[in-house]
From TrEMBL, chain A:
<protein>
    <submittedName>
        <fullName>Urea carboxylase-associated family protein</fullName>
    </submittedName>
</protein>
<feature type="domain" description="DUF1989">
    <location>
        <begin position="9"/>
        <end position="179"/>
    </location>
</feature>
<dbReference type="Pfam" id="PF09347">
    <property type="entry name" value="DUF1989"/>
</dbReference>
<dbReference type="InterPro" id="IPR018959">
    <property type="entry name" value="DUF1989"/>
</dbReference>
<dbReference type="InterPro" id="IPR017792">
    <property type="entry name" value="UAAP1"/>
</dbReference>
From TrEMBL, chain B:
<dbReference type="InterPro" id="IPR017791">
    <property type="entry name" value="UAAP2"/>
</dbReference>
<dbReference type="Pfam" id="PF09347">
    <property type="entry name" value="DUF1989"/>
</dbReference>
<dbReference type="InterPro" id="IPR018959">
    <property type="entry name" value="DUF1989"/>
</dbReference>
<feature type="domain" description="DUF1989">
    <location>
        <begin position="20"/>
        <end position="182"/>
    </location>
</feature>
<protein>
    <submittedName>
        <fullName>DUF1989 domain-containing protein</fullName>
    </submittedName>
</protein>
């Protein structure tokens, strides 16, 4: 299926945009070791956003993969993960800050390095949120696509190195009209001493219509009820 | 770090400057001054005190579960845990804890999440986010739904498995267990004493908590 649109997001890059419902968003790691921090808002009501605890509790999971649905704080399905070559994406560890970026990779600045200056997730999100009429006030936990964080029995969080090979892909189907905000910045728990961000391709493609035997819809009864809440919203909107 | 770190408090109840019982299903919102210590007591055991914090100097900077757990590289909270805002700023530090483990991954219940987790018919039931919003409604418009970030569930045990699963285990708490935290600056505290009737963690019986404050 030919894509509608495509963009490569370089290391340290950021992007935001509105993507309508019924589309596929395919993310591809163009090199090994990608991490893209991903935030979702309902484009028609920006106070409705991806809710990490609601999503994880409803699906009894602390990682995200095919079959999982990212749910909003209003109990609606926002996107479904319809394809995934990796089996594990991290919803727990958030984004980097300027202070952590400087502490970990050394202080960098624009004056010396121009566009090679290392970006932080916090600054990337701040810019894109303000650009869309929001602010860091609206920042909530993100999904870190391509990263795997294992939580040991004592609660320790461990970044799994070598999880993401070049060419890894994950494909999301949009169930609502969405504002997508993303930052291609390192996972905060990545122990690498060099800034490991690699380019990521984002493509938007048409999605086939949802069928009753859809894998994500039937993954859990909780997922079906989240879809039903989304359908109820669209029924009332279009009534 | 910060795992099952059971530490008793030296503070005496009779020296507290404030004490109040928050009944099951009720909310509570109050500002802590710099250095003040807040104790939350699980009076009857296995209750969940759903709690959020805001930097009172900058109310748009809410508590961040993710900044807190990545800051200590451990998902559980106990004595020594630094509770951070979205900006990364340290808001409070847990200074005593006789429960030993608290959850900040599981978030709070809402009418809408109840429809997803249990059944559409549960929409009318009392829930924590309604309690939070009722408290926010009394704050002259300073706070809105945008400020309701994922919270702390004091006394709750929500283990994550090495395989990436999420479980709701019976409480590690018991009658009289408490947690104490000291505020670094001016911090707004928002509590919903959870009214959830669909989750076996509280034996389907929400119970009261007590909040106490000391000046240091």
């Amino acid at each position: 299926m030919a894509n509608i649109w495509s963009k490569d997001i370089g290391p340290g890059g950021k992007w935001s945009g509105t993507i309508g419902k019924g589309k596929l968003i395919r993310l591809t790691a163009l090199e090994a070791g990608a991490n893209v921090s991903f935030q979702l808002y309902h484009a028609k009501d920006l106070t409705e956003r991806y809710n990490m605890p609601d999503t994880l509790k409803a699906q009894y999971t602390a990682h995200l993969t095919r079959g999982n649905v990212l749910m909003s704080d209003n109990g609606r399905a926002m996107v479904s993960i319809v394809e995934d070559s990796l089996g594990w994406h991290d919803p727990l560890s958030g984004y980097t800050s300027r202070a952590k970026t400087d502490a970990k990779y050394g202080v960098t600045n624009y004056q010396e390095l121009r566009n090679e200056w290392l970006r932080s997730g916090q600054e990337n999100f701040a810019v894109e949120l303000v650009r869309n009429g929001l602010s860091m006030r609206d920042m909530m936990p993100v999904v870190n696509f391509f990263s795997k964080i294992v939580v040991e029995n004592n609660g320790d969080m461990k970044f799994v190195q070598g999880h993401c090979p070049a060419g890894a892909t994950v494909t999301l189907r949009t169930e609502l009209d969405l504002l997508v905000v993303l930052s291609n910045t390192p996972n905060p728990l990545d122990p690498s001493e060099s800034y490991p961000s690699v380019p990521v391709r984002i493509e938007v493609l048409p999605a086939p219509p949802l069928h009753e035997d859809d894998y994500c819809l039937n993954y859990r009864s909780e997922n079906r009820r989240a879809f039903e809440n989304t359908w109820e919203y669209h029924t009332l909107l279009n009534a | 770090m910060a795992v099952f770190n059971r530490v008793e408090s030296p503070r005496l109840v009779e020296e507290a400057i404030y004490s109040e019982v928050v009944q099951a299903g009720d909310g509570w919102m109050r500002e802590l001054k710099p250095g003040q210590v807040l104790r939350i007591v699980d009076l009857e055991g296995n209750q969940a005190a759903d709690t959020l914090f805001f930097d009172a100097e900058n109310p748009e900077d809410h508590y961040s579960a993710v900044a807190t757990i990545t800051g200590q590289s451990n998902i559980y909270l106990s004595t020594g845990s630094v509770l951070r805002a979205e900006s990364g700023k340290a808001l409070l530090t847990i200074v005593a804890d006789t429960c030993g483990r608290h959850d900040t991954v599981g978030g709070s219940c809402s009418a809408q999440s109840n429809t997803v987790r249990y059944a559409h018919e549960k929409l009318s039931m009392h829930n924590c986010r309604d309690t939070f919003m009722l408290q926010l409604a009394g704050q002259d418009g300073v706070y809105t739904k945008r400020d309701l970030a994922p919270n702390i569930n004091f006394f709750m045990n929500v283990p994550v498995t090495p395989e990436g699963g999420l479980k709701f285990d019976d409480g590690v708490s018991a009658p009289g267990c408490y947690v104490e935290m000291q505020s670094h600056g001016r911090t707004m505290v928002l509590i919903s004493n959870c009214p959830q009737l669909n989750n076996p963690c509280n034996a389907y019986n929400p119970t009261p908590i007590q909040v106490l404050i000391w000046d240091n």
